[in-house]
Amino acid sequence: MRSRRSPSRRTGRSIFGPTTAGPAIRAGLVQDFRFFIVPVILGGGLRALPEDARLDLRLAESRVFENGFTMLHCRAA
User: Fold this and answer.
1) 77 Cβ partners below 8 Å, 6+ apart?
2) 37-59, pLDDT tens digit by residue?
3) Number of folded domains in the chain?
4) Cα dihedral sign for 4, 56, 39, 60?
5) Among 4, 12, 15, 45, which is 20 to 30 Å from 30 by CA?
6) Helices assigned H by DSSP within 1-77
7) How many angstroms separate the CA atoms of 73 and 32, rounded?
């Protein structure tokens, strides 16, 4: 995820993990999201996005890797 205040990719900030990123997402400071989908069934876990966040995201890029993992790059509209 990258901050909206970043003028370019090189100076963007990365935030990893839903707990750390939650406040920045709610505040509208994040414009790029990269989700990695892993085809494994497991029990519970943390939500990728805060439950109360309302986002309008557009798919910018997707990539499927040989191992079945999928990367989705979304941008805030």
Assistant:
1) 56, 57, 58
2) 988 887 777 788 888 888 999 99
3) 1
4) negative
5) 45
6) 18-26
7) 7
Contact 24, 2 (CB under 8 A): no
- Which residues constitute the domain of residue 53? 2-76
Residue 73, token pair as written in the block: 């790059």
Structure tokens at 66: 């040989």
As a whole-number percent, the residues of the chain with pLDDT over 90 amount to 36
- For residues 56, 6, 60, 54, the Cα torsion angle rounded to the nearest 10 degrees is -10
pLDDT of amino acid 11: 55
pLDDT surpasses 80 at 71:
yes
The CATH number linked to 30 is 3.40.430.10
